[in-house]
Design brief:
The chain has 816 residues and is α/β, with parallel strands linked by helices. It contains 25 helices and 33 strands. The radius of gyration is 32 Å and the shape is globular. Bound molecules: adenosine-5'-diphosphate and zinc ion (2 copies).
């Protein structure tokens, strides 16, 4: 092939298309689909990293105008499999971003070639004509010793420096040079062996045996009596210094071999091999259905709905074993926060070296090595968070998504892909089985399963036969009536005291999500809601008003409860810190740990706090939903959910669903081993269907009620949302731009198929120095809705001024 169709690694919409390049003779064999290259780009032929999408015999551009590929990276080994290129294309169309952004998300992190510009002074040039800004550049460069990075000069002298540099470049006072920086993260291991081809050998042996000064060399040579090849680590471990080794190498007595190694993320010796359990009847039925799907030509996604402890993980592992026996590979996605040592252990103990793990606590090099193991067929199972979907496996047979309801499957950076949607595409494209599991599936997935779009498999019993903990609802309005104004009900206080007495552990949850502050009555539990959207109002302290973040309706904040007239109006938003303080006051002798965003800023602090608690270093753990997931705490027998209402009134239609999930997960923390677990759900709305069903662990009951509400309001799965955030640095400009876009949406909305809400100030009104307004658009079917909004955004972009960004998000998670 003579030509390569290349995507360049830049993010401008104008460069988001393929460019043809000529393949020089020398690269004929290496230039392949999916390979990383360096190409000259633009008028100045700036060196740029690019990716070959395909090869071609012909090009529409005449040969003399085509540029040559300059360099082939990664020894010509593709960085993208054909499946990953398909996935990137799909993501681009589905999430409205550039193909390059999708390729970057798929590519291992940190390996992209970075380029910088050096500014160099031409010593021989005449600088007498320099003036103003040029003099400043001259001064700075002299200070830097004649050359410096362009970025450094810009930082020093402001962005206006570019002009001066351009002028000086014309006058040949200075010139620019591009520098490419590549992080390879290569890890090498050095090995040494005896160089038999040397006649010096005999002499040396004799010499080191007799000469005391050569005891280091002697010790080193003696090592080779037992092994013909020894690694540098082993030599160091034997207490031999560098110098004997250097000497013997120099003399040619020893020779060196360098091997590229891929770092391991665990050592197999730490794990005992386990064999599969004999499946329970429920498990067997599920496994049989999965096997049936494996053999099908056209497969259906499978939703595995099973209560905590019902043996879902065991089903995953037995299904994976089937896939491996067929010579195929599997990916297991888990929320990062659930990727605990216990979770890893189960997979490693079962599959040994065939499995690897990737997560954000590993270094970029370690992660790259796991990626390479997948590419080179050295492993067959990869476990990790959403990005593990992008492993370059050659024959993917199964994708498992554990805790499929988890919001961390949606990327919060561009491309804002939903790994569940991407997994569905990838499974269809590769013919892999898609297996999703949860104790509390998200409503949309469960609805699809009930409609027959997914296969529904259910596990209703715990494998050990144990029971779920007893859950009790505590009416906090009643507590107030009885004169208890503390955040702790009387019963919870008593129970904590009992646990301290028995040296058993307690977990206290505060289901605080996002930034919402809602308003409710502490006497009757009434929550102030928007009458149009059914969503709870958010309190804005500055203006002392309540606002619906769907439609923008505002009302004055009430002095008395509109339901019962009580003056006990409460502005929710109590933090974990306050709860911690109160626990310490009530139980001064208890050891208390707190875990929330503030205490988990450090890289590994999240796991450290949980491990400390697991090891019994504290009696009480106070935390947000972070502590609800994954970890097994055998000594926790009491769980208190401080105010279930906080997550029930987040101002989002997901609130009930999220609260149900949280209560169920939190409950699962208590007494997994025996039946002594107690859970107390404190709430001002004890009759709310979400609370009552969660207390009974009745997912179906909850689903039946919630789905009716969704249907009535046209919320997913019966409708779809799409949001556009208008952001910019000038508050007035973005308000105007948002109005312009709102106008376009209204005009284009012929036949009123769509419901347009806003613009309203976004929940995070000011974020990283930018003001943000948000428009929410609701429609019946997702794809036409998104097409419609995309069209309007395109029109809007032409009308709004520079410096204003319009960002479209499909299925926005943070609807407030
Ligand atoms: P889940 O993933 O649904 O929460 P797990 O797979 O963690 O459930 O299973 C709960 C416990 O039961 C685990 O300790 C697991 O080792 C054990 N287990 C799973 N399947 C069986 C089985 N068939 N027989 C006995 N124990 C099992
Ligand atoms: Zn009231
Ligand atoms: Zn509203």
């Amino acid at each position: 092939m003579r030509y390569a169709r290349v995507i360049v690694g830049m993010n401008h919409p104008q460069t988001d298309r393929v460019f043809d390049y000529h393949i020089p003779e020398a690269f004929q064999d290496e230039a392949k689909e999916g390979v990383r290259v360096i190409v000259p780009f633009g008028r100045r032929n700036t060196k740029t990293e690019g990716y070959i999408l395909s090869l071609a015999e012909e090009s529409e551009i005449p040969l003399e105008k085509l540029k040559d590929i300059l360099e082939i990276l990664d020894d010509g080994r593709p960085i993208f499999t054909p499946q990953m290129l398909h996935l990137a294309q799909w993501m681009k169309e589905h999430y409205f971003c550039t193909l390059n952004q999708c390729l970057q998300a798929i590519m291992p992190t940190g390996i992209k070639t970075k380029s910088t510009w050096q500014v160099l002074l031409n010593e021989a040039a005449d600088v007498s004509a320099c003036k103003g800004g040029e003099l400043a550049v001259l001064e700075a460069l002299k200070e830097m010793g004649g050359s410096g990075a362009l970025s450094e000069l810009e930082k020093l002298l402001g962005s206006g420096v570019k002009n001066a540099i351009q002028q000086m470049q014309k006058k040949k006072i200075l010139y620019l040079k591009q520098k490419m920086i590549r992080s390879e993260y290569k890890m090498e291991q050095r090995f040494y062996s005896i160089n038999n081809h040397t006649s010096l050998w005999e002499n040396t042996i004799k010499k080191v045996e007799t000469d005391k000064r050569l005891s280091g060399q002697k010790k080193l040579l003696h090592l080779f009596k037992e092994k013909s090849e020894i690694s540098l680590e082993e030599i160091k471990k034997s207490g031999i210094g560098e110098s004997p080794l250097k000497t013997l190498l120099k003399k040619g007595i020893l020779k060196e071999r360098i091997e590229q190694i891929k770092r391991a993320v665990f050592s197999l010796e730490d794990y005992e091999k386990t064999t599969p359990f004999f499946p329970t009847a429920e498990q067997r039925a599920a496994i049989e259905e999965i096997e049936y799907q494996i053999d099908l030509e056209k497969k259906n996604p499978i939703l595995l709905h099973g209560i905590t402890g019902s043996g879902k993980t065991e089903i995953y592992m037995q299904s994976i074993a089937k896939i491996l026996a067929m010579g195929k590979q599997a990916v297991v996605l888990v929320p990062e926060i659930s990727l605990t040592p216990q979770m890893m252990e189960r997979f490693i103990s079962r599959f040994g070296q065939a499995v690897s793990i990737t997560h954000s606590r590993l270094s970029a090099g370690e992660r790259l090595d796991q990626w390479k193991k997948a590419r080179d067929g050295e492993i067959s199972v990869m476990i990790g968070p959403r990005s593990a979907l992008f492993m370059p496996f050659s024959d993917l047979g199964m994708i498992i998504i554990d805790e499929v309801h988890d919001n961390s499957y949606i990327s919060d950076i561009t491309p804002k892909y939903d790994a569940r949607e991407a997994a569905k595409f990838l499974a269809e494209d590769t013919g892999a089985v898609l297996l999703m599991g949860s104790a509390t599936p998200d409503l949309v997935s469960y609805h699809k399963a009930r409609q027959g779009e997914y296969i529904l498999l259910e596990l209703k019993e715990r494998t050990g036969g144990g029971t779920l903990p007893k859950m009790q609802i505590v009416d906090m309005c009643k507590e107030l009536e009885e004169g208890n104004r503390s955040a702790f009900s009387q019963i919870l206080q008593q129970e904590i005291a009992i646990n301290l007495e028995k040296a058993q552990q307690t977990m206290l949850f505060l289901n605080r999500r996002g930034f919402a502050t809602f308003v409710s009555c502490r006497s009757c539990g009434h929550v102030m809601r928007c009458p149009e959207c059914g969503i709870s109002y958010t309190y804005h302290a500055k203006e002392d008003i309540l606002m619906c973040h769907y439609c923008g309706k505002t009302v004055e904040s009430p002095r008395n409860c509109p339901e019962c007239g009580s003056k006990y109006i409460r502005y929710f938003g109590t933090g974990t810190q306050k709860i911690e303080e109160e626990v310490r006051r009530l139980f001064p002798r208890a050891n208390v740990l707190r875990m929330d965003l503030d205490t988990t800023m450090g890289k590994n602090s999240h796991n450290q706090i949980l491990e400390a608690f697991r090891k019994g270093q504290a009696d009480i753990l106070v935390g947000t939903q972070m502590i609800a997931k994954g970890h097994d705490f055998p000594n926790v027998t009491l769980v208190g959910i401080m105010a279930a209402d906080t997550s029930l009134n987040t101002g989002s239609f997901y609130a009930s669903e999220n609260t149900f999930q949280l209560i169920t997960q939190a409950g699962g923390r208590a007494g997994r081993a025996d039946d002594s677990g107690r859970v107390y759900i404190q709430t001002y709305q004890p009759k709310h269907y979400c609370i009552t069903h969660a207390a009974e662990q009745n997912y179906k009951g909850f689903y039946e009620e919630e789905i009716l509400l969704r249907e009535m309001m046209g919320y997913p799965p019966f409708g779809a949302f799409c949001s556009v955030v208008v952001s910019g640095e000038v508050e007035e400009d973005i308000a105007n731009a948002a109005d312009v876009l709102g106008g376009i949406l209204q005009t284009e909305n012929r036949g009123n198929s769509y419901f347009i809400m806003g613009p309203v100030p976004a929940m995070l009104f000011k974020f990283r120095g930018e003001y943000r307004q948000r428009i929410l658009i609701q429609g019946h079917d997702e794809d036409p809705l998104v097409q419609f909004v995309a069209k309007c955004v395109e029109k809007g972009e032409q009308k709004v001024g520079k410096g204003i960004h319009l960002q479209l998000t499909r299925n926005p998670l943070n609807i407030v």
